[in-house]
Amino acid sequence: MAKFNRSRASGAVSAxxxxxxPTGRTHEGAPGYERxxxxxxxxxxxxxxxxxxxxxYESANDRDVRFRTLxxxxxLADPDWLxxxxxxxxxxxxxxxxxxxxxxxxxxxxxxxxxxxxxxxLIVAALRRADEPGxxxxxxxxxxxxxxxxxxxxxxxxAVRRLYNERSMIKYDTGTGDYRFGDVLELTHPRASAPxxxxxxxxxxxxxxxxxxxxxxxxxxLAARAELLALPVDERAALLDxxxxxxILADAGMTWESLAGWLQGPLSATFWEKxxxxxxxxxxxxxxRNFDQAGVSDEAxxxxxxxxxxxxxxxxxxxxxxxxxxxYRAAPSLRWSWPLQRALDASLAxxxxxxxxxxxxxxxSGSMFGVMSARSTITSADAAAVFGSALALRxxxxxxxxxxxxxxxxxxxxxxxxxxxxxxxxxxxxxNTAAAVRAHFRGHDRVVIVTDEQAWAGYHGEEPTQVVPPxxxxxxxxxxxxxxxxxxxxxxxxxxxAGLSDAAFSMIPLIERGATADWPF
Length: 521
Hints:
The protein is of the alpha/beta class. Helix content is about 50%, strand content about 10%. The longest helix is centred in the first third of the chain and has 18 residues, at about 60-75. Residues about 1-10 have low confidence and may be disordered. Belongs to the Ro 60 kDa family.
């Protein structure tokens, strides 16, 4: 037996582990491999958990209860790990609601267990946007009543000092939620970081109680906004024609939503062209169809396209890859196709250029076609197609296959765009993963399966990765986070990753170099 000339991947260890033998069943009856520890199951669930959203096999309530239970277990066993995960979940994975719930439930579990230390930090880790302190307080009171423990108050207060400013007040303190800025301030009593912030805090409380007409001199942006709001409605459209309109709108912190409400008229090309320079990345992405319908100029569209395709802006925005697919479908104009493709490529920067031969199998079974949230048109099948296509396009040699009840190759050329390749996928019925692997594995150097792992039992109840020789690594990319997986994971050549971003792809070359693939945080 060779002592040194062996596959390095066979000695690698990855973070997400399962039991070595099946202990249950997938939702479609195949042998199911339970996650070996609470951290593995929690991570898989957290990176795909939209909170309060039903998936194909799991009700919203069952999914939320499982999430809360796992958070509680891990909070008691390893609070430092949970703090790191919540921060990563919010910042890198972009899972806002799951981060808020994990922080709140983790703190409650630790308080019930009379555990001190780290609770305040857990709250801080989840709050990255100015509307999120109110979100967390609303969640806490909905679950646990009006009493706020000190770690919750102090953690929210820490976040408020970092997040509350004039611009965030204009954007998020709109009166649509139960907990406005003034409510948060009165409940948590943060100490202002500077005199202007103290003025802002007092003004937020005053206007919450209907007495905020007088704006302190230090809050110039709020004062400029008040001047715009005082302008008669029939004079507002004319302001957009002024050469200094862009500066006036920027000085007043006007978002496109607030400007539309202020204008009280049709959203013309002039409207969009004046506000486009101050729009955020995601706002631009969501309004491409509106730009076309209003007839914005090619010059303005060019500026939008340049910003969309800028890799630094893509990275900073933390927009998930599937959003570019949604934008592409919503705005089919050819002038957006190229910048959206470049943006998608930038959002998939962590997808490695795998050497040798790679078999990429993309699950297109019925359970993958549920939308990822009630406010989205993107499905898990879409996400799987985006990731599978990106991996195949970058690999040295790849076979791309879609599977369900049956299976078939998806044609592509290296020069194709991922957005175009995704259009070649269809709906494939059931989840006969093992048959697809058996039919298409031809001595590849690795196999990647992008799936929800809810496989059929296959021939003689075999699990899908059994079809691949033990020396060949199989990487399962889990997109939904159910309790049981379709095969073993965590050591040897069988590994599971998860998430809706490209982050975990970087684990593949790490494992193949024989290194341990730890948590991404």
